[in-house]
Specification:
20% strand; alpha+beta; 15 helices; 2 domains; Rossmann fold; binds magnesium ion; single chain; binds adenosine-5'-triphosphate; elongated; 38% helix
């Protein structure tokens, strides 16, 4: 026998039992985007790798350790996208979407990072991301946070997530802070954990995030970002907080929240849950006012966030919040008696489908009557539609209730349509 091939580690198949939960979540996401007038965009999965090294930052974990980068047959440097923002910005510049206009955009799809696979962390995973361009004020920051808060409510997980906020200031403020931080941390260089030592020169802000105990002790006395904050960023942040307070959104200001990508400035935020163990961030984002210019466009204020779909689905499943109804794939199961009847009945069944476009009708193709009946019961159908040679000749069907007591009734195709139309499936 030929050797069986397996999927790549950390890249998952989505099987039929799992897809209803995904579809349920995706339909909620689409609905919330429509309600706030955001429009969908879809970008290629493969982009030139310099887009990410320039955009996300060469010293970030994503680019340094996690990116699937390769050369194509032409020797061109390509990468599987590790995140969506850089691609949207690239596309927006390329197609002139940012000239004298605002854009509210969303996208959904697979991302790729070479990480250690574990619960809630995969090598191919899916993000839903939302990006708003051309708006500099704190109101759009608030809109993004409010729409996610509303979404959590609609999904029923609002009591299981909390919001953390911080401001990173402008690029200049951050550069000044970075210098002070490096100066302070350099005194303790040999005591820092290995990752942090490496980050000291390439990405020192990430050291604030370190999970190492000694590093955390050192960080506790480090200069704080708020002392280096420029006035404009401080006001922007205060105005955002005022809007959130007025809207009744609870949050915690976390001064060590820096996020893993270089392009953020001013507002950053994360929604975190305790119901998934270690992989607790379900949504993260922030303002990235410098990115469009950095990638060759005109200066364009921008803010966005990304949600991890797998983590949200895990949450919905763990908390048993996927409605039972989404798993129902069959309303009516067709059971036939006699050789070749299922095929011959199809024109008649097509008439029923035309009359009832929403009906979910499963046709048993093949098998004896008893076996088909058994499958009809286990399919979750409310009715069996029984067709034998006699029914076929008379253009009739027999309808048998499967989930309630009740008689089997034989009727014409037209009667069957009006009978089924009255049912609430
Ligand atoms: P983490 O700290 O968990 O690694 P991150 O800061 O790298 O997250 P972002 O780049 O901000 O994550 O991506 C946004 C969201 O995408 C995360 O909050 C998470 O829900 C999801 N996500 C990120 N990496 C993965 C992954 N490898 N597998 C599954 N989901 C992921
Ligand atoms: Mg990560």
């Amino acid at each position: 026998m030929a050797k069986q091939l397996q999927a790549i580690r950390g890249m998952n198949d989505l099987l039929p039992e799992q897809s209803p939960a995904w579809q349920y979540l995706e339909s909620k996401l689409r609905h919330s985007m429509a309600a706030y007038s955001y429009r969908e965009v879809r970008m290629p999965i493969v982009e030139p790798s310099p887009l990410f090294s320039r955009g996300i930052g060469a010293g970030t974990d994503i680019v340094e350790k996690e990116m699937y980068a390769f050369e194509d047959r032409n020797g061109e440097g390509l990468a599987l996208r590790p995140e969506g923002t850089a691609g949207i910005v690239r596309a927006g510049i390329q197609h002139g979407l940012f000239y004298n206009q605002t854009q509210r955009l969303w996208t959904m799809g697979p991302m790729f990072r070479y990480e250690r696979p574990q619960k809630g962390r995969y090598r191919q995973f899916h993000q839903f991301s939302v990006e708003a361009f051309g708006m500099a004020g704190p109101d759009i920051d608030a809109e993004l946070i409010l729409l996610t808060a509303r979404l959590w409510k609609e999904l029923g997980i609002d009591k299981h997530v909390r919001l953390e906020l911080n401001t990173l200031g402008t690029l200049e403020a951050r550069t000044a802070y970075r210098a002070a931080l490096v100066e302070y941390l350099s005194q303790y260089e040999s005591e820092l954990d290995e990752d942090s030592q490496r980050r000291l020169s390439i990405n020192p802000l990430r050291i604030l995030d370190s999970k190492d105990k000694r590093t955390q002790e050192i960080v506790a006395d480090a200069p704080v970002m708020s002392d280096y904050m420029d006035q404009e960023s401080a006001e922007h942040f205060q105005q955002l907080r005022d809007i959130l307070d007025a809207a009744g959104i609870e949050y915690v200001v976390n001064p060590t929240l820096v996020r893993g990508l270089d392009y953020y400035s001013k507002t950053v935020f994360e929604w975190i849950t305790d119901s998934l163990g270690a992989q607790g961030t379900v949504c993260g984002g922030g303002r990235y006012d410098a990115l469009v210019e950095m990638l060759g466009g005109k200066p364009t204020p921008a803010i966005g966030f990304a949600m991890g779909i797998e983590r949200l689905v895990l949450m919905l499943e763990t908390l048993e919040l996927v409605p039972e109804s989404v798993n129902k794939t069959v309303d009516v199961a067709v059971v036939t008696r006699g050789e070749g009847v299922s095929g011959k009945a199809m024109p008649m069944l097509e008439e029923i489908r035309t009359g009832l476009p929403e009906l979910k009708m499963l046709v048993n193709c093949g098998g004896g009557f008893k076996g088909q009946m058994k499958r009809a019961f286990s399919s979750g159908a409310d009715f069996a539609l029984i067709i034998g040679e006699d029914e076929l000749t008379a253009r009739q069907v027999s309808i048998k209730p499967l989930t309630t007591e009740g008689e089997q009734v034989t009727m014409s195709v037209a009667e069957a349509i009006s009978f089924l139309a009255k049912q609430s499936f």
